[in-house]
């Protein structure tokens, strides 16, 4: 209800702005800008604690904007100046723009943390397109108005920062389930601010005064920011958004390459046409885009490394227990035999009573039992030993040392004396262990086969809740 009343009031002021007598137009302007303050204050109170920083920043920016507006109006109406440009009011507007952008960036960082690659791509695209806007639209206007190089640099930095923030906001507000109305309204506010700045640069009369209709664009920007704060979705603005697929396809890479080439192409084209090279565009856009490209490449490198590590884990680890799988364990033992066969011992472990638990309680309970056994077996081996899962209910251990078998078997004996969780009830199992010591000239298959044979011999004396052991 409050949002509807705000839209009706602010919309009426914006729509009727030019209908007011020129000397009274400061009143609808101030009514809209001042009304945004309580709107943002309401949004701040409705945001979760700890997530209010964007709205605090926006409230601070709007306070600066309103202070600048009052200063401007005082200079024009009381001091009789034609414009407040170049005064302290202009400085307040500049600082306020920076604070608004800081608030927008907080939203982008929090909401777009799962889509950093897409956000960076959007910023690169927006900054590149701002170069086109600058070189073909804004620079000619500023040059014809006699704006100094310093003024041109300030204007371009303003445009490039606004477009970059707008690109990031558009991205985080338009991806899948991340479409939040309040974020879209924030993007609209930043976009209208950009349009107002562009219009203010172009719509200048012969005396250097900005056309008064451009104030309607800025008022619409205020209105969009107020609506963002009052919208019910304000509470989720800073929640992390979705994490879409970040694969850099050929089409996407080509597009980004074109965006990166726009600045140099424009600069080179001007030289070929015997026009002065736009140093502002080349210097500032390069300074903005190169760090973004470096961050993007770094993220892709980390993503590739993470994917390779994940693939390696999948190839070498048992999916259920996380232990080294059969292939990884055999590779390790083969390397150990090649380096130093003397003193190497293999323990082949098979669970007794597992099939009965699996058949009676189901596969889910059987999997839970295997996970529990794997966890306890990890505690039975020493730091330099390696345990792996061969498959089913078979586990293998490779170790070294004269007392290794005694130490490990004692730990396994204590392990199986306690029941394991399986489904909704405890399960008691036994373990049959076959032991084989490596001999000169043994292959991995040789020592594992002897341990397997010894394990079957141990099974003849298997006892649930106990350890049965045989040595090959």
TrEMBL record:
Gene3D superfamilies: 3.30.70.270
Annotated transmembrane regions: 5-20, 26-44, 56-76, 88-109, 116-139, 151-170, 182-204, 216-238, 250-273, 279-297
Key word Membrane present: yes
Keyword Ribosomal protein: no
Pfam family, one: GGDEF
All residue ranges annotated as the GGDEF domain in the record: 342-472
Keywords linked to the UniProt accession: Membrane, Transmembrane, Transmembrane helix
Designated name of the protein: Diguanylate cyclase (GGDEF) domain-containing protein
Native source species: Paractinoplanes atraurantiacus
């Amino acid at each position: 209800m409050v949002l509807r009343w705000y839209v009706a009031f602010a919309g009426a002021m914006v729509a009727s702005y030019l209908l007011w007598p020129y000397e009274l137009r400061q009143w609808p302007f101030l009514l809209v800008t001042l009304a945004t303050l309580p709107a943002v204050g309401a949004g701040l109170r409705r945001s979760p604690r700890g997530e209010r920083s964007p709205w605090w920043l926006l409230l601070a920016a709007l306070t600066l904007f309103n202070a600048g507006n009052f200063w401007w109006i005082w200079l024009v109406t009381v001091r009789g100046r034609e414009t407040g440009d170049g005064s302290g009011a202009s400085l307040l507007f500049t600082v306020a723009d920076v604070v608004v952008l800081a608030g927008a960036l907080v939203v982008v960082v929090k909401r777009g943390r799962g889509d950093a690659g897409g956000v960076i791509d959007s910023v690169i695209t927006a900054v590149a397109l701002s170069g086109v806007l600058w070189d073909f639209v804004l620079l000619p206007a500023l040059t014809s108005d006699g704006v100094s190089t310093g003024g041109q640099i300030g204007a371009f930095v303003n445009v490039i920062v606004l477009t970059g923030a707008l690109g990031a906001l558009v991205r985080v507000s338009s991806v899948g389930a991340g479409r939040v109305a309040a974020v879209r309204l924030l993007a609209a506010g930043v976009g209208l601010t950009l349009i107002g700045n562009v219009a203010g640069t172009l719509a200048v009369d012969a005396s250097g005064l900005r056309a008064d209709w451009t104030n309607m664009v800025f008022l619409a920007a205020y209105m969009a920011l107020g609506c963002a704060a009052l919208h019910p979705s304000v509470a989720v603005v800073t929640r992390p958004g979705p994490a879409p697929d970040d694969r850099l396809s050929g089409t996407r890479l080509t597009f980004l390459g074109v965006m990166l080439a726009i600045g140099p192409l424009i600069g080179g084209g001007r030289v070929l046409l015997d026009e002065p090279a736009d140093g502002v565009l080349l210097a500032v856009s390069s300074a903005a885009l190169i760090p973004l490209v470096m961050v993007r490449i770094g993220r892709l490198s980390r993503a590739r490394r993470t994917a390779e590590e994940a693939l390696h884990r999948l190839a070498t680890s048992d999916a259920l227990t996380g232990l080294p799988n059969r292939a990884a364990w055999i590779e390790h033992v083969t390397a150990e035999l090649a380096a130093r066969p003397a003193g190497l011992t293999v323990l082949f472990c098979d669970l007794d009573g597992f099939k009965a638990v699996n058949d009676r309680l189901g596969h889910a309970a059987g999997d839970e039992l295997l996970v529990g056994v794997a966890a306890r077996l990890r505690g039975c081996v020493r730091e330099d030993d390696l345990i792996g899962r061969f498959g089913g209910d078979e586990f293998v251990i490779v170790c070294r040392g004269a007392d290794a078998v005694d130490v490990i078997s004692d730990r396994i004996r204590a392990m199986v004396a306690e029941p394991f969780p399986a489904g909704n009830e405890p399960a008691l199992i036994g373990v049959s262990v076959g032991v084989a010591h490596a001999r000169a000239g043994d292959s991995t298959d040789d020592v594992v086969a002897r341990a397997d044979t010894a394990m079957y011999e141990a099974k003849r004396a298997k006892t649930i809740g106990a350890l049965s052991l045989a040595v090959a």
